[in-house]
Write a structure and sequence with these properties.
Strand 1 and strand 2 form a beta hairpin. The protein is of the alpha+beta class. It has a single domain, classed as 3-Layer(aba) Sandwich (Aminopeptidase), CATH 3.40.630.30. The longest helix has 19 residues. It is globular and about 45 Å long. The strands form two sheets. A five-stranded antiparallel sheet has the order 1-2-3-4-5, sandwiched between helices. Strands 6, 7, 8 and 9 form a four-stranded antiparallel sheet that branches.
Amino acid sequence: MSDLTELSTARLRLRRWSRADRVPFAAINQDPHVIEFLPGPLSREQSDAMVDRIEAGFEERGFGFWAVEVVDVASFIGFVGLSVPSFDAPFMPAVEVGWRLDHAYWGRGYATEAAQASLRFGFDVLGLSEIVSFTTENNVRSRRVMERIGMTRDPADDFEHPGLAADSPLRRHVLYRVCHSEVRDAAAQQAHRADGQER
């Protein structure tokens, strides 16, 4: 278990949650844009309970969904990080990378930037060999983030989410995966290209 509680990127700080995060997080969980591909809005009590579960995960495992700050811009824009899914599925047990950001901050690459940092933490600090991510079929925006961070999908891995009703239009989910070796190779290729451009 790691005792590292914060990650940082060029623009972001990923940290443990504070009490001040709860009100804006509750608003995020009521935003129609954010919950479009989720089962529904969360009440303030449900939103707070989710934060409690996230924080309990940090205490138990040393990782979780970090609260995200944009340095010198915004003190809280949502979460990005790693979690252990609590439902049964063919790909379990697994660690997932996931995100939920304030709609006002979409389209700026924050989810991608923070997810990449989360992957590095999962592979380099936690020693994971694989990390997954999943969403409902029609959530194109999240699927693009998954692809940008190097994840790939095998349609044979798609599954019916057991936490959703059988007649729910969100029940069919796609699964994306990435292995440590794939991230390492991609980073090496990127560094090689950058080195070639500098010469």
